[in-house]
Specification:
The chain is about 75% helix and about 0% strand. By secondary structure, it is mostly helical. It has a single domain, classed as ABC transporter involved in vitamin B12 uptake, BtuC, CATH 1.10.3470. Helix 1 runs parallel beside helix 13 and helix 4 runs parallel beside helix 6.
Length: about 325
């Protein structure tokens, strides 16, 4: 089968999975809704409680979940190229920890959703600037220096988060813990995060060839005419902003940025022209499915979606490790 045709088939299959995951998210919950009622609600023909549940609650939540999952998977794929490390994760550079500090501070101070999102984004950007500033030594920065700096900053942010949980008022603890474990229940208008996802993907695709060369090594990429320094900085900033946007809207959701690029790479290869859009579709679908399970398994009680992604991600990751040949870690 020609490579181009295979790529189109993979993208079409993942696009179909994305649509199916969103339809299931609209149907499944404490109030089951039939496909006909979902369609009527989307077309504006349904009124009453069914229409309100679909249009005001489930659709914004599903679209936000899809966008956040896509952003995390895209950030994971980019960071694995940047660091040339298949275990690189969007949270390994401390961005999630910075966002956590900002969000928990907003919760302690009694801010609303807008305040929590705003301070979380400020914290994520602060962590990004801190990591980049500390990792940039006299001779520039290397993958190992950036990774080590991110790990240290993430550990420091984790200590601050633990301290805030220890001294926080009891009535605030549940909301703080839910945010730290990932929570889509407070999502609002999904348009902004969807626009960010589209912009991030469209920004990276023109550089897919350069990313393919960078994945083979900086020296090879530079010898073939790639401006390695600016490309690295651009990839780092874009991956950081994508992670910050996802964490701001959905809390700290792990494993999507680590597992999804791995699975897509196994199925589609390591060509970034296919890997990046396929990761976005797969990551968005996985988070929507996990969130649907989180709010329906023990309905009407809702679980943090980060718990479901971890329960899915851990066995998948162990399976991938068990299949890896010696030396491919």
């Amino acid at each position: 089968m020609p490579t181009r045709r295979r790529a189109l088939l993979i993208l079409a299959a993942l696009a179909g999975l994305s649509q199916l995951s969103i339809v299931l998210a609209l149907m499944v919950g404490s109030i089951p809704i039939s496909p006909a009622e979902v369609l009527a609600s989307l077309l504006g023909d349904a009124s009453g409680m069914t229409g309100d549940v679909v249009r005001s609650l489930r659709l914004p939540r599903a679209l936000t979940g899809f966008a956040c999952g896509g952003l995390l998977a895209l950030a994971g794929a980019l960071l694995q190229v940047l660091l040339r490390n298949p275990l690189a994760d969007p949270y390994v550079l401390g961005i999630s920890g910075g966002a956590g500090i900002g969000a928990l501070l907003a919760i302690v101070l009694g801010f609303g959703v807008a305040g929590i999102n705003g301070l979380a984004f400020v914290g994520a950007l602060g962590a990004m600037l801190l990591v980049f500033g500390l990792a940039h030594g006299e001779g520039g920065w290397t993958q190992s220096r950036l990774l080590l700096t991110g790990v240290i900053v993430a550990a420091g942010c984790g200590a601050v988060v633990t301290l805030m949980l220890a001294i926080a008022p009891e009535e605030r603890l549940r909301g703080m813990l839910f945010w730290l474990m990932g929570d889509l229940s407070q999502t609002g208008d999904p348009r902004l995060v969807l626009i960010l996802l589209v912009v991030a993907l469209l920004t990276t695709l023109p550089f897919a060839r350069e990313l393919n060369l960078l994945a083979r090594g900086a020296d090879i990429a530079q010898a073939l005419g790639v401006a390695v320094g600016p490309l690295r900085r651009g990839v780092y900033v874009l991956a950081s902003l994508a992670t910050a946007a996802a964490v701001t809207h959905a809390g700290a959701i792990g494993f999507i940025g680590l597992i999804v690029p791995h699975l897509v790479r196994l199925a589609a290869g390591n060509d970034q022209r296919l890997l990046l859009p396929a990761s976005v579709l797969a990551g968005g679908s996985l988070l929507v499915i996990a969130d649907t399970l989180a709010r329906s398994v023990l309905a009407p009680q809702q679980l943090p979606v980060g718990v479901l992604t971890a329960l899915i991600g851990v066995p998948v990751f162990l399976f991938l490790l068990s299949r890896a040949a010696p030396g491919q870690h």
